[in-house]
Amino acid sequence: MLRQQQPRTLAGRLRLLAVRRRSSSPLLLFFSRSPSLPPAAPPSAATNNSNPAITPTAPATAVRFFTRPANLSTPRPQLPFLAVPLSAWRRNNNNKQQQQFRYLTTERKRWLAHEFLTAGKYTVSLWAILGLTVAIYWSLQQEWLERRYPTPHEWTYLTRARSRLARWAPDRTDVFATDWVQAGAYAKNVLERLEDPSLDGGALLPPRDDGEVGFDATAASEPWRRGYHQILMLCGRAAEHLDDQVVDTTRHLVFPAAQVRGPSNPHPAPIAAGSPPAPREEDCDRAYDPPEAYYGRVLATRGFSARQKMDAALAHAAWLEFKGAPEAAARMYERALALAVEGSGAARPGGPLLPYDEKTYVLRDDNSEEEGRKPSANVLASLTALATHKARGGDVEAALPILISILRARRSLPSPQQQQPRRKPSSSSAMAAVSSEVAFGGDTGTGTSSSSSSSPWTMENVSSLIKSVVLEPAYPPPPDDGSAPPARDPGELCEEAGLNLYIGEIIYAMSSKSTNSNSSSSSSKNGSRSGREDGLAWTREAVDLAEEQLHKLKLRGGGGSGNEAQAAEHAKKTCKDCLESGLTNWAAMVERLAREEKEKKEKERQEDKKVAAAAKSGWLGLWGDGNGSGSGSGSGSGGNRDAAGEEEENRSVGRWEAEEQVVRERTRRARDIIEELEAPKTGIAALVWA
């Protein structure tokens, strides 16, 4: 077998390697001229002749190292995974076998696996961040709601969470209108869970008789009963707002009853733009139970205090009065008064301890022999509601003495410093108050402590802060049951302002009524005018008192914890309502008096003109205006004086017109403390806060 001749020197070996790299055939070797190496024989000669002696030799050709003959140019080898054929090549080579190309190579597989893994990591990370953000927001919201609307700790988590959301819904300020459908649904669900023995109603006993609607909650704890009462009252409040609503059973949507299409409503009210179509009458049902069902359940449940039952009776009476049933409302007000007397320690209505006259409902004097103690807070509240009901019904002669006696009783109440504490707080409540004070910087009202003047980084303060953050806040102690006389605190002073407002409105209305009936008598006019001024004075005093107390409450802030914070919020709300109503009544009263004053001025001006015209016109018009000769110059000067007098009268402002301007200014100033606008954010928060 023939072998290929190998070069002997290093230069020859390098040339051979270069030629092999350039050539497509490994057997074709071309060498440059070298004196030490003979020319290589062509492979054809070696294959045709087996004898090397007679093999013909070809002349040596000179081939440069860096050149390549044209006859040796062949296409480079095409690998399937390195080249993609062109369409033209495919058209020219239809008869040839098409090559198969691999698009999913090993490198591409690795790249795709890396991309999928990276995308999965990013997706999982983003969803984890989003889920943790939602969980943190939910936790912080529930913690804030628990401190604002505390729930009993013995309830389950779902019951407590829905109870907080239900109580928060009416007080939300970040929505345009309260969603009473959602609030009522939450409250009703919580009520069902509390009355279910398998969930949270283990301590609630069923009614003893078949006719009773209330349960027996005497075996439950006081926090459980208080929370149960709050949910029942919230259900009644939601039922009042949803009394005219119906639910479409086919779509489970709530609509006003006026929009239902049916025989009983031939002309339905139009629906809002973008709302679903109006329901049919045969598909509708009542959206919520009537309020009487929930208020009656509070009155029939055993275990509630007299104050809790009295609140339910007053709410039920107000609802009956709103629905146009004054007789039923009066009976319910009387029942609330009986519950108030029962809780204050009286044996029975009409007994020796009854603080008011049974016929006129006027409070007795404190120095009388029959009653030597002041009326309780429950009695004052129920009597005030009964008197306002009588006044709205038109019986102002009976309502005015009741209100005056209540005002006299409230003004004789002791101050908070003079009144002794009625209840000693428990140790858990005290610890909760201290923790809340340290954590949130509030003032519990228990006096200055020894640690308040020291550094805030003491071990006691730090441990209290950690406990307040980690542990759930303690449930607040029970509020005042109203069986004792109240103290004359800012809340009671706002109640006094409300009484002044009622009295002023009644006196003004009575005086206006007498003016309209006796318009011809001058003495009756003077008496009615003085009566209206008295009513205006009562209203003005109510506005001053409410504004003063509201300023004090605003300067004091929302300090305190538990019942003190709730009492401060209730007092602030009472003062705001009294101030708004007082300014409205004051403006209406002054506007009417100013209008009458203008009419009186206009009438006097017309009479003066008539007298002046009669004085000017003498016999046959020859005597002038009586101030000079009858010449034209004299009459012209008199006309100028009359015009100047009219302009001076127009520029002069009357008494009630001036007070009307005062009312406008007071209303503008009071708007700042009534609305309580938040200060604008500063720093980075101002960039993201609308």
UniProtKB/TrEMBL annotation:
Residues 259-284, 411-458, 472-492, 513-534, 619-665 are annotated as: Disordered. Residues 586-616 form a coiled coil. The chain crosses the membrane at residues 119-140. Residues 621-639 have a biased composition (Gly residues). Residues 412-455, 513-529 have a biased composition (Low complexity). Residues 650-665 have a biased composition (Basic and acidic residues). Keywords: Coiled coil, Membrane, Transmembrane, Transmembrane helix. This is Uncharacterized protein.
